[in-house]
Write a structure and sequence with these properties.
The protein contains 13 helices and 7 strands. It has helices at about 1-15, 25-30, 45-50, 55-70, 75-95, 105-125, 130-135, 140-145, 145-165, 170-190, 205-225, 245-255, 300-305; strands at about 265-275, 280-290, 310, 315, 335-345, 350-355, 365. The longest helix is centred in the middle third of the chain and has 21 residues, at about 170-190. The radius of gyration is 22 Å and the shape is globular.
Length: about 375
Amino acid sequence: MRFIVLTVLALLALATPAAAQSDPAIADRLPLFAKNNCRQIRDPGNQLFCGDAALAAAAEKLSVAIEGRLARLPDRLPAIEENAIWIRQRNLGCGIIGQTAIRTDEFDRVKACLLKVTEERAAIVRDPDFDCLAANTAAGALICADPSLALAETELNGQVLGLIAKLDPTAARFAFAEYGRWTRERDRKCNLVGKENVPLQELQSAEDCLAEHLKRRTDEIRAAKGDPKKVFGRQVAARIPDTDAVDFCAARIHAANSCGNFLRINRVYALDSQVTDQEAQVTGEIEMAVLAPFTVCSKVAFSCTGTCWDARTGLPQPGAGNKERTAEAFNVTRRLRIQRTFAFVKAADGWRCREDELAPVNSGTAGGGS
């Protein structure tokens, strides 16, 4: 787990496309700058963390706190996304604008600001209550506001993590993806998708639905008596070719291609379907958030988003192929939205997805997070 967290933090430090131009006077004030080859880091703020011992120590404490937080959460991707957003806000709050080099006369102020907010962040993240308070979905806010729901979710999370810990790394990756799909399915069933800005009192009718979901999943895990194979990996077919089926297919594709290291599936919609007795074509829309930078035309882009991309227009570039390489990369927290037609075949246990990657897509857009 520690390797994963530090890798994520290292990738976040490389989120911008061109190396920062350091003021030589700034480099001279960073004792570790040359030793740690900090000039190669693209973000001006992270150059300070690289070259200053006090900032590096604070970053290590934060890394340990983040590691502990991720260890508490079965669905770690929202926490990784939230941390990426915090890093962007940290820079802006301390007066670091994009790739603009830090002025010499601003060095002490910026360093003090980075040190303060990083130490505060580490203290906050260590508090288990922060897992709830950092929820950025309508369901998360409702659960956080209701002690009984918050306790039920904490219990469910602990049981899920206990089961996943018994799996080998590949099976665990699929289990984490399945847990994320449970959450998205829950939000759809409880009519909470896209209601992040709706006042909580207007959402209280969904509390019973959330409670039922948490109880049903907890009872299912208890009935498994410690056997993760009785909980995860059992569903290989969907009851009907609909939004849940598209989500199931997309989640398995992402798990199979290790896409969770770079992308989080936020939302899934079925837009249209054509169904016969034995086959179905379902057009779905999938929204993903970038968690760690990857180049716009790469194996990750092709397998996990279904296409290469034009970095200038934010539109798909299907003709580029998955072998064409470019240095341009997506920034963290960027939102990618694709539309794609999924093929399903009728089997004895339901509708099975016939896809093993997201390529090619019908259409798509990349926006936000710049």
